[in-house]
Amino acid sequence: MIGRIVAAVAGIGVAGGLGVLAYAWHPAIAPIAPPASTAFSTASVEHGRVLAAGGYCAECHTRRDGHEGAPLAGDYLMATPFGAIYSSNITPDPETGIGRWSQAAFVRAMRQGVSRDGSNLFPAFPFDHFTHMTDGDIADVYAFLMTRPPVHSVKRANTVPFPLNVRLLQGGWKLLFLHPGAYRPDPAHDAQWNRGAYLAEGLSHCGACHTPRNAMGAEKAGAAYDGAPVDNWIAPPLNGTNPTPAVWTEDEFFQYLRYGVAPLHGSAAGPMSPVIHGGLSELPESDVRAIAAYLASLDQATGRQGGDAARLAAAMRTSTRDLTGPQTDPDARLYAGACAACHANTGATPVPGRPELALNNALWLSEPTNLYQVVLRGINAGEGQAGIAMPSFYHALTDADLARLAAYLRRTRTTLPPWTDLERKAAAVRATLPAPPVAASH
């Protein structure tokens, strides 16, 4: 009897394993002769260009680690918990790119995460989002890519260790976490909301950075848009768990996504800058507004903004609280000398170009990572608000200075518990950044 049970269990296990293998295996799609650029209509190529910008194709398929690569030629480093993954060449080079990919092969990669040769792609490529795009949009992105200049470029080898580097095993990941198929409009919402959902959940894959990941590298299903670490920054929550005093309303989201600065929340920096200025800036204004409307609904902004006026007034009262009269707090003096010239606001609302720190995500997150990143690296004139820059304090402030500044701002600008281990964390963030050149003295 026991022997039969063991045999049955073993049989089920073998059958299940074979089923997973059958699901994970895909045939190669025959290569094609690279199509002429005239094979695609001008309208399709142009629409594909806009979509490729809104999907940040160039951002993840162009090397940028001090050895600037050709656009879309791949070799961009994606540091994952499982090892380094380098992006593919998606120019139409017939040998190292996708020049011999048919449209069917490209659609399969976008919808199912399968390469032309039948191998499974790692989910560092967000096919779990691109699968929700329409056939027409995927075809137009293909048309755009196939009309780019071909670049012969071989990417570096991934460092994902065995057995995680076995592509066939990705079939099990997809079985658990891939939900293929084009986005279906939700009849409970209007056309603008559905357009925003289509873009945010599909093409622009917002959740890929703003949703935490589980041990298998998939987005946590019950924590959509709860915020997550990415590229040595923290992508803040985009839903109702965002802790900043002023609610991220549709207009705040729109101003931020369209122009790189939200009046009550501050400027874009770090990984968000190219998303805005190199990606979303190419989308029609109506599309950016639709994304803003969708995100504001996740943020439950309409029901939460009733107390914004009082919260804004309270935040503005703190802006200059320690800057008048005899200064006895050494941390306040440090802030006054390094930051107050730009960040002290005396009016009822922040002055454009002078973000009010008491309203900024950086001070309200669970860790000081983003605050340290901005202070150490600065913000150049093309990153956030056009023409407005913040200098780097990499050389001007020690890790001990940064710790004092962070503790002071958290204590005086928020109602949250203090951060801990601040000096060590400052050193850790500094270690992720290249040292900027020291300004010449005169």
From TrEMBL:
<dbReference type="GO" id="GO:0005886">
    <property type="term" value="C:plasma membrane"/>
</dbReference>
<keyword id="KW-0677">Repeat</keyword>
<feature type="binding site" description="covalent">
    <location>
        <position position="339"/>
    </location>
    <ligand>
        <name>heme c 3</name>
    </ligand>
</feature>
<feature type="binding site" description="covalent">
    <location>
        <position position="206"/>
    </location>
    <ligand>
        <name>heme c 2</name>
    </ligand>
</feature>
<dbReference type="Pfam" id="PF00034">
    <property type="entry name" value="Cytochrom_C"/>
</dbReference>
<keyword id="KW-0472">Membrane</keyword>
<dbReference type="InterPro" id="IPR009056">
    <property type="entry name" value="Cyt_c-like_dom"/>
</dbReference>
<dbReference type="GO" id="GO:0005506">
    <property type="term" value="F:iron ion binding"/>
</dbReference>
<feature type="binding site" description="covalent">
    <location>
        <position position="60"/>
    </location>
    <ligand>
        <name>heme c 1</name>
    </ligand>
</feature>
<dbReference type="GO" id="GO:0020037">
    <property type="term" value="F:heme binding"/>
</dbReference>
<feature type="binding site" description="axial binding residue">
    <location>
        <position position="210"/>
    </location>
    <ligand>
        <name>heme c 2</name>
    </ligand>
</feature>
<keyword id="KW-0479">Metal-binding</keyword>
<dbReference type="InterPro" id="IPR014353">
    <property type="entry name" value="Membr-bd_ADH_cyt_c"/>
</dbReference>
<dbReference type="InterPro" id="IPR036909">
    <property type="entry name" value="Cyt_c-like_dom_sf"/>
</dbReference>
<feature type="binding site" description="axial binding residue">
    <location>
        <position position="343"/>
    </location>
    <ligand>
        <name>heme c 3</name>
    </ligand>
</feature>
<feature type="domain" description="Cytochrome c">
    <location>
        <begin position="326"/>
        <end position="413"/>
    </location>
</feature>
<keyword id="KW-0732">Signal</keyword>
<dbReference type="InterPro" id="IPR051459">
    <property type="entry name" value="Cytochrome_c-type_DH"/>
</dbReference>
<dbReference type="Pfam" id="PF13442">
    <property type="entry name" value="Cytochrome_CBB3"/>
</dbReference>
<feature type="binding site" description="axial binding residue">
    <location>
        <position position="61"/>
    </location>
    <ligand>
        <name>heme c 1</name>
    </ligand>
</feature>
<keyword id="KW-1003">Cell membrane</keyword>
<keyword id="KW-0349">Heme</keyword>
<feature type="binding site" description="covalent">
    <location>
        <position position="342"/>
    </location>
    <ligand>
        <name>heme c 3</name>
    </ligand>
</feature>
<keyword id="KW-0408">Iron</keyword>
<protein>
    <submittedName>
        <fullName>Cytochrome c</fullName>
    </submittedName>
</protein>
<feature type="binding site" description="covalent">
    <location>
        <position position="209"/>
    </location>
    <ligand>
        <name>heme c 2</name>
    </ligand>
</feature>
<dbReference type="GO" id="GO:0016614">
    <property type="term" value="F:oxidoreductase activity, acting on CH-OH group of donors"/>
</dbReference>
<feature type="domain" description="Cytochrome c">
    <location>
        <begin position="191"/>
        <end position="299"/>
    </location>
</feature>
<dbReference type="GO" id="GO:0009055">
    <property type="term" value="F:electron transfer activity"/>
</dbReference>
<feature type="domain" description="Cytochrome c">
    <location>
        <begin position="43"/>
        <end position="149"/>
    </location>
</feature>
<feature type="binding site" description="covalent">
    <location>
        <position position="57"/>
    </location>
    <ligand>
        <name>heme c 1</name>
    </ligand>
</feature>
